[in-house]
Amino acid sequence: MSEDERYRTSTQYRLWSYSPDSLLALRSTTNRIAAERVREAVRRLREARALSSADTSEVENGQSTSAIPEGEVDCLTVDEELKLVAFYCRQTIQLGDHLKVPTEVKATAIQYIKRFYITNSLMTYHPADILKTALFFATKTENHYFRLTKFADAIGKTKPEDVLASEFLLTQGLRFTFDVRHPFRALEGAVMELQALSKGDIPPFHGAGAVIEARPHNMERRVKNAHGKAREYLKSSALLTDAYFHFTPSQIMMAALMIADKELTEWYIKCKFSAAAGGLQQKVLATLEKCATMLKEVDTSSEPSTTERKELKALAKKLNKCRNPEKMDLVGLQRAKREGEESVDEKIVKKRKLEREQSAKEGEDLFGPAIKK
Amino acid sequence: MANSPLVVPGSGEKSTANRTKLSNTAAASNGATPEASNTSNEGGHDLAEQMNEEEKQKYVKGKKLGEGTYANVYLGHLRSDPSKLVAIKKIKIQKEYTEGMAPDAVRELKHLQEISHPNIISLLSVFSSKDQNLNLVLEYLPLGDLEMLIKDVEGVRYGAADIKAWMGMLTRAIWFCHENFILHRDIKPNNLLIAADGEVKLADFGLARSFSDPYRIMTSNVITRWYRPPELLFGAKHYSGAVDIWSVGLVFAELVMRIPYIAGDTEVHQINLICQAVGTPNEENWPGVSKLPEYTVPEPPTPVRLRDHYLSLFGTAGPEGVDLLMKMLILDPRRRITAREALQHGWWAADPVPTKKQDLPRNSGGDAKIGEDLKRRPGVLDDERGAKVARKLDFTAVR
């Protein structure tokens, strides 16, 4: 089986790869639906409050009542949602560092968050809640299991039920696909091969002597430096941009190497192609350039600039004013679901259904229902 | 309605009124990239909820095939084509597990979503129903499992050509897992289910995991005891696909003998039996073995069994078959045959030719059996054979 064949069977390829246009279309739809629902919910809330202005208990959530301003709700745009998601993804890296989880766990958690927010809006589910859940769930899927209570304690100001409340929502948003293919192992493989090539332990793929002659100087040291730098890109930019949605892990890895040391990487690519495959080589290089451009959009350092910080603060404020009041208390919603605290409407529906079934059953029996003992 | 994100049909069939749709309904069950819908706010559901609803609407749930503590299994069919049967495994919310979705369900979903092979059970779809129950839509495998065939000594006669056919399908399944960097870690006859056309399918990925990075440790507490290789019994924390190959070898032996070959009552007993049946592991036949954390072997040591010993026990498999079996049961996991090498072995081409799958011996009455097989909690023992199964994984001990 070739690497390509394998990758094409992955859910990352089948379900989570998009063209930029189709990704934008999905995000726009999600944003539009969420905004409509926020406005609807706020309208309902205002109506309820108008009905019982004296009785505030009608609106259980104290936090929501004060946050809702008068007039039309000013909702986040797609672009604003994306900026906030990126910010909370960075937060996830920091939280992961704090909890000392391996890179794979952090990386998987971030992809979970990014995937989740393709079909869910921040206005519906706040990223501060989702990120904890995503990180916890990633510890399960990446075989680095954390006890829930320990996890919640280590985060601080978090109860186990806060972490679990959105787990189901998250898995649904992930379409129940949990495997994420990362470029980290690919980088280790490429570096090993480069080291071997630099020492002359292995010949270049097509045995072209001229290629090996053109080997960059100080190759061993350059490989080492490129390794470190590329890894930084994989641990930050690759996760925070949309790279995973548009490129394969090996393309992302090669693009990171390209940024780290262009000459070295181009030489490496030459080693892997025969001269006859020049067209293909150009195609690969063009794709890597595109990917590298995307990776360079995000700085590898984790600190946002002051202007960014200001903008993010404003966006966070805006988000607080356009959250869906009916979806704010995830813990409460979850408890209601699990404990069967159904709303009155649901209870009536259930009762009617039971009655219907009962009468249907009785109808089948000519002599009526069985006599209870 | 606002508090209930999912429109739940009272009884599968009557629910079309609440159906919500995305624009690209042409997509096959799980395979298509989702596309944005052009219509607005369908029934007030998030896109994620709509997608779930769409998956759910593709299937109709029918009669219950089996009920267990971990899951209930139902017969189902495609709404668009009632002749296309499926098994719907509805995972119950586990009261005793308070840390969210159980690790075995996570593992099974994670791995089955990624692989597709004729000899591995197909996960056709996943959706959630009322109260956040997970529903796994699996292919319907009505003819029971290999354990039933092996045990039914009176009712089912089979020979070398049949064994070769079943082993071929199992070896291809495990080759495919390893090719995709997945360790199954629970191969045994009752995890090998049989499709209507006789095809054997590897099921139960509740203990499966991806190959570890070299520096990350794994738990040695996997694989049902009778099929567990010596390196795991000795507590190895770093291991490879060789663990599955040992299990495959023991399934092979069991197919020939029609009784589990190495059936220990405890882990220590299992090691003792391995020493008797295969030979005592030592530094000579397995360099480094004495450094494994729980390495202890009984005295006096038994020399590694030779070809004649195997020929006397497994002669029906022929000399080539015996050769393959011996290579699957090599004590040193580094020297044990790999799945790829096993597929290149001379046995497959030797006489007799493997039986065509439609001509393989079978038994009937599988309906109840698929329920039995699927409802078990993956990776954990069913009651009957509980004693020999891997203990429930302790996920806190191993990181």
Automatic annotation (TrEMBL), chain A:
PANTHER family xref list: CYCLIN
Region (Disordered) residue spans: 354-373
Name of the protein this chain belongs to: RNA polymerase II holoenzyme cyclin-like subunit
Family: Belongs to the cyclin family. Cyclin C subfamily.
BP GO terms, sorted: regulation of transcription by RNA polymerase II
Pfam families: Cyclin_C_2, Cyclin_N
InterPro entries named among the record's database cross-references: Cyclin-like_dom, Cyclin-like_sf, Cyclin/Ssn8, Cyclin_C_2, Cyclin_N
GO molecular function: cyclin-dependent protein serine/threonine kinase regulator activity
Keywords assigned: Cyclin
Top-level taxonomic group: Eukaryota
Keyword flag Transferase: no
Residue ranges constituting the Cyclin-like domain according to the UniProt record: 90-172
Organism of origin: Hyaloscypha hepaticicola
Biased composition (Basic and acidic residues): 354-364
TrEMBL record, chain B:
Binding sites annotated in the UniProt record for ATP: 65-73, 89-90
Superkingdom, natural source: Eukaryota
Active site, renumbered: 186
Gene Ontology cellular component list: cytoplasm; transcription factor TFIIK complex
Alphabetical list of InterPro entries matching this protein: CDK, CDK7, Kinase-like_dom_sf, Prot_kinase_dom, Protein_kinase_ATP_BS, Ser/Thr_kinase_AS
Compositional bias segments (type: Polar residues): 13-42
Catalyses which reaction(s): L-threonyl-[protein] + ATP = O-phospho-L-threonyl-[protein] + ADP + H(+); L-seryl-[protein] + ATP = O-phospho-L-seryl-[protein] + ADP + H(+)
Listed Basic and acidic residues bias regions: 369-383
Sequence segments annotated as region (Disordered): 1-45, 353-383
UniProt xrefs under Pfam families: Pkinase (PF00069)
GO biological process annotation, one example: positive regulation of transcription by RNA polymerase II
Keywords: ATP-binding, Kinase, Nucleotide-binding, Phosphoprotein, Serine/threonine-protein kinase, Transferase
GO MF terms, alphabetically ordered: ATP binding; cyclin-dependent protein serine/threonine kinase activity; RNA polymerase II CTD heptapeptide repeat kinase activity
Domain Protein kinase stretches: 59-348
Gene3D superfamilies: Phosphorylase Kinase, domain 1, Transferase(Phosphotransferase) domain 1
Cross-referenced PROSITE patterns: PROTEIN_KINASE_ATP, PROTEIN_KINASE_DOM, PROTEIN_KINASE_ST
Family, similarity comment: Belongs to the protein kinase superfamily. CMGC Ser/Thr protein kinase family. CDC2/CDKX subfamily.
Protein name, per record: Pkinase-domain-containing protein
